[in-house]
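This week, think about what follows.
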Amino acid sequence: MKNWFKKIKERYSLVKTRIAEFCKKIGADKWVMKLDWYIIKKFLGTYFFAIALIISIAVVFDINENIDKFVTNKAPVSAIVFDYYMNFIPYFSNLFSPLFVFIAVIFFTSKLAENSEIIAMFSTGMSFKRMMRPYMISAAIIALVTYGLGAYVIPEGNITRLNFEDQYKKKKKQEYVRNVQLEVDSGVIAYMERYENYNKTAYRFSLDKFVDKKLVSRLTARSATYDTTNVHHWTVKNYIIRELNGMRETITKGERLDTIIKMEPQDFLIMKGQQQTMTSPELSEYISKQKQRGFANIKEFEIEYHQRIAMSFAAFILTTIGVSLSSRKVKGGMGLYLGIGLALSFSYILFQTVSATFAVNGNTPPIVAVWIPNLLYTVIAVYLYRKAPK
C-alpha cells in the first residue's frame, strides 16, 4: 500500500512539473501576471465604486437631516458645498474604509466564483495562496492611501469642516475653561482660574517657579493675554512678582509686563474633535509635550494617533476574510456572503468604537484598546483562510 501511494505521489509530481514547463513554453506564466492586474483593477474599481455609492447616499441623508439648521443659521451655499461637504466626503470615506474594502472584496470575488473564474484559476495549478497575491497588493495600496490621507491630508480639511459645524450646525464650540494647572517648563507651574477664548485672556493667573522642590519665584496677575502673532508671548496686567531667597523676599509690582511663557491656548483648551485636526507628527509632538507637563486629558489624542495606523492594517485583515468567505461557488449567488461581509465589517467598526471607550473611560492603554479588534479579526482571518477552498 505504501509503495502504491509513493508511485502515485511520484507520478503527480512528474505531471505537475511537465504542466509547469508546458505553461512556461506557451507563455501561461505571463498570463498569470495579466490575471494579477485583472484582479487588482477589479478590486480597486469596485472599492472606489462602493465609496461613491455609499457616500452619495450618506450625503443625501445628511442634507435631509441638516437642511433646517443650514437655513436657520443662514449658511452660504458655497460654504455648505466647499467647506462642509468637500471635507465631509473624504473624512467619512476614510473612516469607513474597512466597510468599503469588505464590500469590494465580497462583491467582485463572489462574481468571479459565480462565473467559475476561480475554478479556472485553480485548474491551471494556481494555489489559493498565489491567488491572494493581487488581493494583498490591492490591500497594501488602500492601506497606504488610507494612512496618508488620515495622517496628513484629512486633518487640514477637518479644521474647515469643524469650524463650519460650530458656526452653522452645532454652535457648541468650547470657548472657556476653568481651573487650569499645568507645567509649562521644567519646575515652572502655571495656574489660571478661568480662560476666555474669545479674547485669549486668562484671569487670576499665577506662575510659580521651583528649584529643587523649593519655591523661588511667584508671579500673580489679574489677567494674562495671549498674543496670537507671537508664539508663547503673553501680556500680564496688574501683576505682583515675589522673589524668594532664603528668608528674604523681594516684591515687584506693575501694570503691564510682556513675557515669554511656554504654553499656548490649545495646550489646555481642548475642543471636541481637536485631535482630528492634527496631522500624525503634530499629534505625536502634542502627546509627548502634554505627558511631560503631567496633563491627563490626552487619551483621545493617543487613540486617534494609534487608530490611524490600526485602521490601515485592517485592509489586509478584512481582505483575507472577504476572499476566504466568497471564493467558493455556492447556490443562491453572493447574497449570503455579502450579508456576512456587511455584518463583519460593521461589527469591526463598532468594535473599534467600543474598544476605544475602554481607554477613555477605563485603565486600558490606548494602543492596546485600539489594536484589540485587529487582533481578534486576525484570528478570524487565519481560521477562514485555512478553511478556504484549496
